[in-house]
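User: Can you predict the 3D structure of C1q domain-containing protein? Sequence below.
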Amino acid sequence: MKISESFVLWLLLLGAVSASESCDCLQNQEQTAQLKIELDNLKQQLQVRQVAFSASLLVTGETTIGPLPTDIVLIYKNVITNIGNAYNSNTGVFTAPVRGVYNFEWHVGAVGDGSHASAGWLVKNSENVFMAYGQQNQHFGSTANGVTLLLEVGDVVFVRLAANCKVYDNVNKHNTFSGHMLFPM
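Assistant: Sure. Here are the predicted C-alpha cells for C1q domain-containing protein:
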C-alpha cells in the first residue's frame, strides 16, 4: 500500500474524512473497497485491545486469609470493572488477550499481630515479579506496589499471598488487584 493510501486509511479510522471524500484521493473502486475492509479490521482490533479490570477480595462480609505454610493465589471475587473479560474471578488470574504493555497494582493489608506480615507477590506466569510487603505490631496496616509488564497473548498474571503472611478484608475493600493495557505491541 502506498503512503498516501495509508494516510487516507488513518483519516478514515480517525473520522477526519468520510469514505466518500477519501474516494477522490484513491485511484479506483477496488482500492476503496480494500481500504474499507482494512478499516473494519482495525476497528475490530481496537475493540479487542480495550482491557482493564479492578477487583477486591470480598463481595460481602469480612475475613482473614492466612497465615498458611505455603504461598496461595488470592482470588479477588468482587469485580468492579472487567473490560475485555481478561480477569477470571473464579481463579484470580488475569490472562493477556493481546500482546502489549500492561500496568498492574495490588494492595494488601491486615490487622497487625507482631508476628505475621501482610505480603503479596505479583506473579507473571510462574515467576514472582514484585512484592508488596508490610508489617504492623498492632492496628490495621496496608501496603501496595505496581509494575508495568510486556505480556504475550496467553501470559497470566495474579497475586500470590506469601507463606506465613496474611491479609484481611471487609466492606472497606482493603485488598485489591487492578490492571489495564497501556498499549498493544
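The chain has two domains: 1-47, 52-184. The radius of gyration is 23 Å.
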